Amino acid sequence: MNTGRRRSALSYIPGLTNNAVLKLILGLMMSYVLLSLVWGVLLLVYQDGSNFNIYFLPNLGLPVISEFKAHWWTLLTYGWLSHGSFFEMGSNLLWLYCFGSVVQMLIGPKQVIPIFAYCLLAGGVFYLLSQYLPGSLSKTPPVISLLGPRAGMIGLAAAAVTITPNYRFYITETFTIPLMVVAGVFGVLMIIGSGFYLPVIFMLITGAGTGFAYVKLLKAGYRPGQWIYDLSGKVESLVTPRKDVENNKNSRTYSTFNKYEPKSGVSQHQIDVILDKINQKGYNSLTKEERQMLFRAGKD
User: pLDDT (tens digit, 9 = 90+) per residue, 166-218?
Assistant: First the structure.
């Protein structure tokens, strides 16, 4: 019996291993449930939910700029946590699935989380810096501490539009919705939801710009997300050693539509033809063989 290979419990969830969008959704759901449980316990113990706002939110969400020095780590935590209504959380996950699935389908699952993470980081930085703009500090923030994945979601939306601006969601065979329209509606809703607080608007703009820039770097042949998977691979090899799996440091994790080295019989020209077909007729128009080629290219 081979006992050298170990699997985590989550690896048994169907489709999770090569589905970064599902991993993000599960992670955000778990953080939402955890924060809700903490809030519920504090409410039961102290009969007052204000303790959650006093002791937890300032240490998890982005604060006002004057308090950031004492809570610098919130730049790394705010976007991965959510605490609001169930409807708000559910709508966030739907938008994340909508845009993330397009990105994952066209350039592979290993680009989704890096895009999301970079957009959160850049959006958080500009949220803080824009508070120095005239008039920003005189306005009351829409929330006590900023939580939520808005910068990451709008970054994925911008990335999806940059990859394939003519993409259409096929609701039925005859009824389609352009990706540009869906992204436009999403952007308007995000701005309205910001309460027109200038730092939040700057965060959204920066998140979108980061998603756009990430895709442009991929097309230029760069691999901005490579180090994330290199690091996670090293950590995984330390905590879950595998005797039958060799760590491939040179694995390709960037876009398949630029400088793609043919593997498994899939050429760059074939990938270009498939992407053009998706732009013109939608993903559902692909044959079984074309979908298999796109899937193989995304894994390389």
Answer: 888 888 878 889 999 999 999 999 999 888 888 999 999 999 999 999 999 98
- As a whole number of angstroms, the distance between CA 227 and CA 253 comes to 10
Instruction: Spell out the domains of the chain, with CATH numbers in brackets.
Output: 10-226 (1.20.1540.10), 256-300 (no CATH)
Angle at which helix 86-107 crosses helix 20-46, to 10 degrees, equals 160
Contacts of 2 (CB under 8 A, 6+ apart): 243, 244
Q: Which amino acid is at 300?
A: D
Q: What pTM does this model have?
A: 0.75
| pLDDT, tens digit (0-9, with 9 covering 90-100), for 101-153 | 999 988 888 899 999 999 999 999 999 999 888 776 556 666 667 888 999 99
